[in-house]
Write a structure and sequence with these properties.
Mean pLDDT: 91
Largest sheet: 11 strands, mixed
Number of helices: 10
Strand content: 15-25%
Helix content: 10-25%
Structural class: alpha+beta
Distance between the termini: 33 Å
Radius of gyration: 24 Å
Shape: globular
Length: 500
Amino acid sequence: MMVVYLFIVFVFISSATTLPTNTGECSGQGKPCQFPFLYSGQLHFECSTRAPGGGQDLYGRCPTRLVNNVTRQASDEPSDWVRCGENCPLQRYTENKEIENHMKSLVEEFPGLASLVKVGRSSLGQNIVGIQISRGVGEERELLKPKVRYSGNMHGNEPVGREMLNHFAEVLLRGYGMVDAITELLDSTDITIIPTINPDGFDRGEEGVCSGADYKTGRFNEGDRDLNRDFPTWREMNNSIDNMYLNRQPETKAMMDLILSEPWVLSANFHDGAVVASYPYDDYRDDQKQRGIHKTPDHQFFKHLASTYATNHLTMMNQSVCTRWWFEDGITNGADWYPLNGGMQDFNYLFSNDMEITLELSCCKYPRKYYLNREWERNKESMIQYLQQVHRGIKGVVYDTFEGLGANSSNSTRSVAGAVIVVQEPAGVLGKNVTSSSRGEFWRLLLPGQYQVTAYHNVCSTGGVILQSDTVTVSVTEDGPLVVQDLVLDRVGPCQNGPR
């Protein structure tokens, strides 16, 4: 079970851990910053806007002297703190090539925890890269270890999330073995971070410009398209894969490849221009009313995801932070805010097992660089807590024991790829099924409650039947938020009785 830690309020540093000494790469006013440092119960890998003597200083400060070199406790004397220079984390925006090089350098430094993810290329041929972070990342993923994903900068002139993700990767790797919440997360979760999806648009954006929704301002890619209007929608669910890819932008195709090729369970995409956590659906269907909330079958869990981020964020629930919009409790249904066609979060939900929300971090789309340190402090707890939600609900492996039904069958039990898992709650069958991975795994994110779970596998083309498991009753509770339940396909039914 994933244990929730109060990452911001208190950080536990293992007594068995030897903290690294300062690298000397970050300095302020000609003096080297002492990283990492412990201050006010928090372990910092970046400067702080709450340094002694600095008040709520927008500019990050760092200690140049520690009172304890073993615990890395920073001095409380204001004279021992200096304003951080631009060579320190979160003191400026990073260029595209710098982000790529940063991902590569982290992989080189942490080969047992990090691997480079080559997502694709932009319209202008720039590399779109990410980083995969997990214990034992170079080996086959542990069975039932869930895959989660953060991506950012889909709109090139919205780069705050890009900087949060670029630094988050470093914090996860440097915090492993030192911060309990991070260590447990990397031990139990397979994390992918993609700081920028639209590097070409970023190159056109301008720091300090708080609005802009076109090519010139950097929102669109080089193909003059809004990438968050370029994904297949519910209207194309019956199309072939080849048809779904027709006329898509290179960046869209790259993300579609990534989304459809791995068994993702949970993700979030970072934007700017508001301060809110937005959840699906973003779009209305023809037979639905064209205003108000458009609910998915997982409406309550999506609200839980959005609320998890908003409540752990320092200001997302504060309406005065961004007065251009009003969102109750810092969350909104996407369609209720404003409907859009071709969004990535709806694509994830409709075409894969993944549940994704959209996170708007800054009221200004491209704020001045000296706001970045403060934005990190507002978001860092939420970024941890959100990923921990993947350890809720039910997960397991689907097996079968039948001989002669389908290719590669045998007398022995084997895992089944492509099985459909149907979940029913007291109110009825949830309208969204999940499909088992190539290794037979399934994950179904659920809130506490009692559920009935059944697996089906269509072998009509080879065996003339639908394989089916017994229906299992599973209780998910607050004390036991994650239940491991394997399902065995040991019954047969006619092909017309399978799940629709």
